[in-house]
Amino acid sequence: MRRRELAGILLFAAIVQFAFLANISQILYEGYSVKDTLLSDLGVWEHPSALLFNTSLVLFGILGISIGVVLWPDKKLNFIPLLFVLCGIGMIIMAAFPISIEWAHDVGAFLSFVLIAVAALCCYWTFPGPFGVVSLLLGIISFFAEITYKSEIYFGLGAAGSERMIIYPLFIWMAAFAAVLILSDENAPRDSLLDRFFAWTASKF
After folding, report:
1. pLDDT value at position 204?
2. Model pTM?
3. Which of 19, 111, 156, 179 is the most buried (most CB within 10 A)?
């Protein structure tokens, strides 16, 4: 099995398990509101949803680190493997320190969501074409949502709804990236925008 194919399967597994376990956790959380209850609240140990939700974060973290390790030799992906490793570490930090320990949880959230948004932006230069453009747009949307969320500008969505506007574009991007990894060939000639730029620069000398 090719490295990219394995990484795509691991990423798809990470997304699916989180989607299922997070939704079950919402059912277990009494009085859960999509508008008013943060996803992070599911991991607070005083609630019956905590064990399941934090388990999902740990699984995502392990799979995220594994994806980064599998892709590490693939130099065509630039910084993306490192960003997945850091994202995985961030997920585990969020599981270890629920939102009731805010400073530590925020460190995990930064590693998980800000850096994975950077990975989406990196795809604009790494994968020329429609996927690169979609990656750029989803990364920008997530960054904008992160800024407005931290500024407490919720556009009528509530804090929880605004939190989802950070997460949902990234999960959509990760699902698309999983498909691209499964279908792409790491042995193909380097053809990113950065490679084209370096080739053009070298041709001038």
Report:
1. 56
2. 0.86
3. 111
